[in-house]
Amino acid sequence: MSKECFCYLYSNLNLMHIPIFKGFSESIIGFEENYLKCQSCKVDTEHEILFISKYFHVYNIPLLPTSKEVHAHCLKCGMRRYNIPLEKQFFSDYENLKKKYRHPWFTYIIPGIIISLLLTFVYFEILPAPKN
Ligand SMILES: [Zn+2]
User: What is the 35 CA–ligand 1 centroid distance (Å)?
Assistant: First the structure.
């Protein structure tokens, strides 16, 4: 094998080792003051609550919303808690909060495109053609 040929192969192989920049990113979806049980005060106290949407991305393109989390700040004792999952066990009005704070629209672009392509495929390829 000539040196040029080897260099060509090596540079082509090296292209396959491009690191894929992926991971989880987050976006603020809301803020409110509400009552929440404080772990330090041991009772329901007023909290500043920041609602966060987490989503999976590849090269900063959002692929799929994954979870909602909350950062809470107790206004009585000042205790701050981060990344509390938005789940029934932590919030008494969970159902309302879940509807009020939704994942941002841009986290649904890629799933929307995939679903539209599948529906287009089903419409044109699987369903029988209309008879004249
Ligand atoms: Zn507290």
Answer: 11
Residue 100 lies in a domain: yes
CB 47 within 8 A of CB 80: no
pLDDT value at residue 129: 73
The pLDDT tens digits of the residues spanning 111-132 come to 999 999 999 998 888 877 777 6
**DSSP run (H or E) holding 37:** strand 22-37
Cα(75) to centroid(ligand 1), Å: 7
Q: Does residue 23 fall inside a structural domain? A: yes
Ligand 1 centre distance from Cα of residue 36 (Å): 9
Distance in angstroms (rounded) separating the CA atoms of residues 80 and 50:
11
User: What's the average model confidence in pLDDT over 1-30?
Assistant: 70
DSSP helix/strand/coil, 16? coil
Q: Quick check: helix, strand or coil at residue 19?
A: coil
The predicted model scores a pTM of: 0.72
Residue 83 falls within a domain, yes or no?
Answer: yes
Domain-located, residue 131: no
